[in-house]
Amino acid sequence: MPKPIARRKTKKAAAKRFKVSAKGKVLYFGSGRRHLASSKNRKRMRRIGSPKVVDNSDRKRIVESLPFS
């Protein structure tokens, strides 16, 4: 029998937190929206909820954790 090809598994923690766009940008959503929202103003809550692009210094590690995206 031939030996199976080794494949990398997706890191599920990274898959839940990051998304790779069609052009290859890595996006994430800000933290801090789940609770204690009444003390945060509406502008801050909108900013937290919008997607942001991951910095290039972290991008390589995240893409390695998401081999099928």
From TrEMBL:
Gene Ontology cellular-component annotations: large ribosomal subunit
Annotated family: Belongs to the bacterial ribosomal protein bL35 family.
Annotated protein name in UniProt: Large ribosomal subunit protein bL35
Gene giving rise to this polypeptide: rpmI
Gene Ontology biological process terms in this record: translation
Example GO molecular function: structural constituent of ribosome
Keywords for the protein's UniProt record, in alphabetical order: Ribonucleoprotein, Ribosomal protein
Positions of transmembrane segments: none
Entry coiled-coil feature ranges: none
